User: What shape does this take?
Amino acid sequence: AKIACGISDNLVTRAAAVAIKEQKKLLLAPRELPFSAIALENMHKLASLHVIIAPPILGYYSESSSIEDMERFIIGKWYDVLGITNELYERWKG
Assistant: This one.
């Protein structure tokens, strides 16, 4: 909510404000489910500013067999959207 309202009173919110101002890639990974209407409204506002909204959600095809596999899948997906090359998970071949 602070980022969506432009409040930058700590290092994280200030870094986000600068990334938005300078049109840098910014990934927001909201963890609370289900999302409230207020959270969805704030995420919509941020998405309109080109913030990438990517909750840590597993794909059904991830075939994770351990917590570490789940972590690698989610982090690998985040790296993908940020353009960071990685081999953290096996991509779907459909």
The radius of gyration is 15 Å.
